[in-house]
Amino acid sequence: MGTGTAVAPRAIGEPAVVRWILIVTALCFLGLFLVVPLAAIFVQALEKGIGVYLVSLHEADALAAIRLTLLTAAIAVPLNLVFGVAAAWAIAKFEFVGKSVLITLIDLPFAVSPVISGLIYVLLFGLQGWLGPWLAAQDIKIIFAVPGIVLATIFVTFPFIARELIPLMQAQGTEEEQAARVLGASGWQMFFRVTLPNIKWGLLYGVILCNARAMGEFGAVSVVSGHIRGLTNTMPLHVEILYNEYNFVAAFAVASLLAMLALVTLAAKSAVEWRVARQLRAAQSAGPEEGRKS
């Protein structure tokens, strides 16, 4: 064999014109259905000037909607974080009866409409629901209150972290955990020193997606919130009310915050993907290097 560098065969054999047509088509599609609507949101929000824009965001109901959205995400995301890590660890590292059922239940929110999930909570906790009379007797309010919004948000977002971690932890296997166990590590030591460092980027990726969905959820929250202005309206619900009242500038002003959240989420997601790809390239380049040294 010669010592010259071998030229890898082309993975794609289509003519250049075909590739350019596909690229231009994809860019036009993204521009029409993503860039233009995003630009329209900011244009409409700033249509009457930055002063009106800021006043719309400082309005009492808008501030209440922002606070409730942040509160809901601050509760739902950590709870989903705990559940997602525990579920992924159990599914990827252990064999137990009902494992397939647990996986199916994790995927349930992907198959059920958010509106249906909201109706389920109304049937459970509403005044005419199964637990409604008992809750009313105890003066506990879930539906048309913050607890119902949090429960509905948790339901629609709990697959995100688990579904990011399960394939990652399955691919990693259990060899490192078994070695740590043999060396005398406890369960918590094994988790914090072995498992968590191996899944940290996948975990962060899942948290980013979970937070974005929690702050942007509309269907399930709309059913259980009652649309009480200043009390149970999250940002998406507040946008709907403002738009229905023909207060377009204020509606687009609040919508612009959600759009900026989407852009920040996209940037964070891309940064995590770049970091993971960089680590994979470093690991792949280290492998041949070690082989040559040996």
Give me a quick take on this structure.
This protein is mostly helical.
Protein model, in words:
- The protein has 294 residues and is an all-alpha fold.
- Helices cover 79% and strands 0% of the residues.
- It has 13 helices and no strands.
- It has helices at residues 16-45, 50-58, 60-93, 99-111, 114-125, 132-137, 146-157, 159-172, 175-182, 187-216, 219-225, 235-244, 248-293.
- α7 (146-157) crosses α10.
- The longest helix has 46 residues, at 248-293.
- The radius of gyration is 24 Å and the shape is globular.
- The protein starts with 15 loop residues before the first helix and ends with a helix.
- The model is unreliable at 1-8 (pLDDT under 50).
List how many beta strands DSSP finds. 0
Which regions have little confidence, pLDDT < 50, spanning 5+ residues? 1-8
Count of helical regions: 13
Overall structural class, as computed from helix and strand content, comes to mainly alpha
- Report helical residue fraction: over 70%
- Overall form: globular
The succession of helices and strands, N to C, reads HHHHHHHHHHHHH
Overall mean pLDDT: 86
**Spatial gap, N to C terminus:** 22 Å
* Quaternary structure state of the chains depicted: single chain
The main β sheet shows up as:
none
Rounded to the nearest angstrom, the radius of gyration is 24 Å
Our estimate of the beta-strand percent is: under 5%
List the helices and strands and how they pair.
Layout: H1 16-45, H2 50-58, H3 60-93, H4 99-111, H5 114-125, H6 132-137, H7 146-157, H8 159-172, H9 175-182, H10 187-216, H11 219-225, H12 235-244, H13 248-293
Helix pairs in contact: 1-13, 2-13, 3-7, 3-8, 3-10, 5-7, 5-11, 7-10, 7-11, 8-10, 9-10, 10-13, 12-13
